[in-house]
Design a protein that fits this description.
The protein has a two-stranded antiparallel ribbon with strand order 1-2. It is about 60% helix and about 15% strand. The radius of gyration is 30 Å and the shape is elongated. It is an alpha+beta fold. Strand 1 and strand 2 (about 55-60) form a beta hairpin. The protein has a domain at about 40-80. About 0% of the residues are buried.
């Protein structure tokens, strides 16, 4: 009986040491999995509706969309005819 207790205690100690190594690996894998890109959400008023629409996108997507919008405005301003005087 005493031998069985010592052997089971040895198994418990060995079992405790093994999950510690896998816990470190699991924590590292979890940190890599949770490293999602940051998202920005905005409420946008839609023409013809009183209800705003929620639009979520990553920081990079928002920056690209803003740059494209600015470029579109510049293109329209360059191609517009001069005002009559």
């Amino acid at each position: 009986m005493f031998v069985a207790l010592i052997l089971s205690a040895g198994l418990v100690v060995a079992a405790d040491a093994t999950p510690a190594a896998s816990t470190t690996q699991t924590t590292t894998a979890a940190a890599a999995a949770t490293a999602k890109p940051q998202k920005i959400c905005k409420s946008i008023k839609t023409l013809g509706s009183r209800l705003p629409v929620k639009k979520c996108q990553t920081v990079e997507e928002a920056a690209d969309e803003e740059a494209q919008a600015q470029q579109a405005v510049r293109d329209m301003q360059r191609s517009a005819p001069p005002p009559n005087q």
